[in-house]
Specification:
This protein has 116 residues and is an alpha/beta fold. It is built from three helices and four strands, in the order αβαβαββ. The chain has helices at 11-15, 40-52, 76-79, and strands at 24-28, 56-60, 86-91, 104-109.
């Protein structure tokens, strides 16, 4: 990840780390502490990467309402497609600043039941 590129994932470098035992890719978008938000085109590239490497995607989106940039946030759930199962993690504690409360959820987007 590079600050000058909006903290996008360097997918060429990431490809060197994937092997036969790699099962999923975990991303945090929007991120904390840098506050970057992935552009939709980069998110589609991440999904292409997952498809090519037979990975499912876990997207930690707990800061969905707390981005510090002018970029528009799009959930990976909205971009989910048949060839890449997506799990979106979200929560209320960051958005509504309720320390000690943990109200969280997982949303599964798996149209072809690949995670079963």
């Amino acid at each position: 990840m590079q600050a000058e590129k909006g903290f996008e994932i360097n997918l060429k470098e990431l490809a060197k780390l994937v092997d036969k035992d790699t099962r999923f890719l975990w991303v945090v978008n929007p991120s904390n502490p840098c506050g970057s938000v992935f552009e939709k085109t980069h998110m589609e590239s991440i999904l292409d990467f997952c498809s090519k490497n037979n990975l499912f995607l876990v997207s930690d989106e707990v800061y969905w309402n707390e981005s510090f940039s002018t970029s528009v946030f799009t959930s990976f759930g909205h971009l989910a497609r048949n060839d890449v199962p997506v799990i979106v993690a979200g929560g209320l504690e960051k958005t509504f600043l309720v320390p000690g409360w943990s109200v969280s959820w997982l949303l599964f987007f798996d149209r072809e039941d690949r995670l079963s």
